[in-house]
Write a structure and sequence with these properties.
The structure is a single chain. The protein has ten helices and seven strands. Helix content is 38%, strand content 12%. It folds into two domains: 146 residues; 124 residues, no CATH class. The relative contact order is 0.11.
Length: 293
């Protein structure tokens, strides 16, 4: 779940490591930790580019939904989409300024992938990674990410882990803010009698799970719930009620709500039967066709 962590805070942590080597109990420990966070931040940028470019998920995710290695992501972004014929980097730039800024420097992303690919475990050769290299990446990465980009990660991962129940969206204004959207399918049975004998419309639950912004996300992804990071500000979460045929439900009044389920004779018969089960009778005014006039 490292992809959910705030990339801006990760960069702050890298700088803290580099600024406080005197606190190390093992030589180079902070440098190793900073390198791991830099690789994570680069992978977050590449993940967002792959996801919002519309790239097939098998190109950037393994079967267990873990991210492919960064080198493979860079190569995949340089490939052409079979439908549009455009390179995925270009398709990402077309999604708006929030994702477009990540795609401005494809060569730089490839260069940093090569530089940061040095393994942190034991090797038979000396390490090439040093403080100057890590600080250089932090300066570069700060041109890519702002404080709201973590919400794009949240939205994208929600769409993937929900199996498409939630859709990641980007607003069309200048801020191009990330958000989540859900189409909620309901039937006439949502119209019920309340405790006072009045007709009411019972909407399905819209479950949310709030996770801590100060802890590493752990555990399985909750089934059917949107996962939001604590203290999220500005991210939109919206939904639309639709019939089983995908038609929008008009909630302006009870009459328009009922009419949303009664668009053809078969639907009208179905909802009439539902009302009879409630002990009520409903009649529809048939609208004459032009040739009946």
């Amino acid at each position: 779940m490292g992809l959910l962590q705030d990339p801006v805070q990760a960069l702050d942590q890298v700088e803290w490591y580099l600024d406080h080597p005197e606190l190390e109990k093992f030589p180079g420990a902070f440098e190793l930790a900073g390198g791991a966070l830099c690789r994570q931040t680069l992978e977050q940028a590449l993940f967002l580019l792959c996801f919002f470019s519309g790239m097939p998920r098998t190109k950037y995710l393994r079967a267990d939904r873990t991210l492919q290695v960064a080198g493979r992501l860079v190569r995949a972004l340089g490939e052409r989409d079979l439908v549009s014929g455009r390179v995925y980097f270009e398709l990402a730039r077309r999604r708006g300024p929030r994702i477009g800024k990540l795609a401005r420097w494809p060569r730089s992303l490839a260069r940093w992938q090569r530089l940061l690919n040095e393994p942190a475990h034991f090797s038979t050769r000396n390490r090439d990674m040093d403080e100057a290299t890590l600080r250089g990446f932090v300066r570069f990465a700060r041109t890519l990410f702002d404080g709201d980009d973590k919400y794009a990660l949240v939205a994208a991962i929600n769409e993937i882990y929900s199996g498409g129940i939630y859709t990641a969206v980007l607003s069309s204004d200048d801020r191009n803010m990330p958000g989540l959207y859900r189409r909620i399918v309901v039937g006439p049975s949502a119209i019920q009698l309340d405790a006072n004998g009045q007709l009411s419309f019972k909407t399905p639950a819209f479950p949310l799970r709030i996770i801590s912004a100060t802890d590493v996300p752990r555990g399985p992804w909750p089934r059917g719930a949107a996962v939001i990071v604590q203290h999220t500000v500005g991210m939109s979460i919206g939904g639309q009620l639709v019939t089983r045929r995908g038609d929008p439900i008009d909630l302006t009044s009870l009459a328009t709500t009922i009419a949303s389920f009664a668009r053809n004779p078969g639907q009208r018969r179905y909802i009439s039967a539902h009302f009879r089960k409630l002990g009520l009778r409903i009649e529809f005014n048939e609208v004459p066709r032009p040739d009946d006039a």
